[in-house]
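The material for today's practical consists of a large collection of protein records. There is nothing in a record beyond a sequence line and a structure line. As an example, a complete record with its sequence and its structure tokens follows:
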Amino acid sequence: MAQGSKIEVKSDSETEEQEAMAFMRERYLYLLSNLCVAGMGECNVTMYENTNVKCHIKAVDSNFGNVIVENLVTPLPVPINKAILRTNDIISMEFTCDYAKIMNKF
């Protein structure tokens, strides 16, 4: 071993925390997968400027900066077939889905 090299050993609590974070990330990705791919992603979105829209979630980029949606219904009379919503513009997202159906897959 080269002089000045250090070996870090993680404590049990650090390992447990890392495992818990991995588990939570797996569940989060599974939820996103079901919302986007399985078509369970119907939602109401509250955005800044007091705007409420309805849409179907189709995809989310890897850093959760943008959400790709279909059938976007806005206060305007014409629905938008496809759109990208910036998460910085979103206050909340309320999903309408069968929670039991999603959880049965765990």
Q: What stands out?
A: The chain has a mean pLDDT of 82.
